[in-house]
Amino acid sequence: MSAQDLQAHLASGTTHVCTCWAVTRRDGVTIGFTDHDGPLQFDGMTFEASRGLSARALSSNSGLAVNNTEALGVLQSDAITERDIAAGRYDDAKVTIWQVQWDNPEAREVRFAGTIGEITRAAGGFQAELRGQTDALNLPQGRSYLKTCSAILGDVACGFDLSELGFHLEAAVHDQTAAQVIWLGGVTGFHDRWFEGGVCEVMSGAAQGLKGVVKLDQTIDNLRQITLWEPIREQIASGDMLRLTAGCDKRTQTCQQKFDNLLNFRGFPDIPGQDWLVSVPRSDDANTGGSLKR
């Protein structure tokens, strides 16, 4: 890739340029688009023409302000569909936009890199907010001093290997009685509530690749009832395979007794409460951070 070649072409006064977009979803599916009148190829991808995606002028800043723009598109069955948008498959998808010399695709330059934010759709079209990489600066940084653990189960800070036997389960859907309630058959060897707070991922069927967080996990009439905090926004049918991973409520006791991972606990269970902070010295008892006597 040669940005210098593109700049030299732009300086010539007679230009042959177009715009190319690459959209990479969280499930790994990548789709390429271009506003040129024919397909272009580079980086092992084919950027299809006339597939109904265009972008407004990019906002670019030299400081730390957030760069953003919007993408406008037409919902098409062979590209971006309303069903996939409704299912959340394009939430936080990565977007890269190039300016390309169409008769020499090696002469190109990245003009935008970021993710898809809010998507609205109406009248057979959609409008997607594109958030630049500096948008991540809006996220809270640093650690919080809480009694509960600040790590996410299985991440680098936690260090626990969820692939260990007994902390994950793959089972077939027996039935679905509501958008958030799924029944599984043949689940044995796991206590009730074992998967509460864990992740439910659909491994097959129309909803393959979509995930939800488990709110309630219990056994009723020899079936496992899994209730999610939010419904998976695609149809789940009987026989579809699900993968459940164990959940963690961030407490010290759970980290020690359920996962035997207390050395990596990232909470502060012995931090004094507010009553201790406003207490006054006492001659008849020690202020140890526990409950104060009255």
Question: Quick recap of the structure?
Answer:
With 294 residues, this protein is mainly beta. The chain has helices spanning 3-11, 82-86, 252-257, 274-277; strands at residues 17-24, 30-34, 40-42, 45-49, 53-55, 68-74, 94-101, 108-122, 125-132, 168-178, 181-184, 199-202, 211-220, 223-228, 241-245.
Structure description:
This protein has 294 residues and is mostly beta strands. The relative contact order is 0.12. The protein is built from 4 helices and 15 strands. The chain folds into 2 domains: 3-136, Pnp Oxidase, Chain A (Roll); 168-245, Beta Barrel (Thrombin, subunit H). The longest helix is centred in the first third of the chain and has 9 residues, at 3-11. The strands form 2 sheets. It has a 9-stranded mixed sheet with strand order 3-4-2-1-7-8-9-6-5, with helices on one face. A 6-stranded antiparallel barrel has the order 10-11-14-13-12-15. It has helices at 3-11, 82-86, 252-257, 274-277; strands spanning 17-24, 30-34, 40-42, 45-49, 53-55, 68-74, 94-101, 108-122, 125-132, 168-178, 181-184, 199-202, 211-220, 223-228, 241-245. Residues 193-275 form the Bacteriophage phiJL001 Gp84 C-terminal domain. This is Putative phage protein (TIGR02218 family).
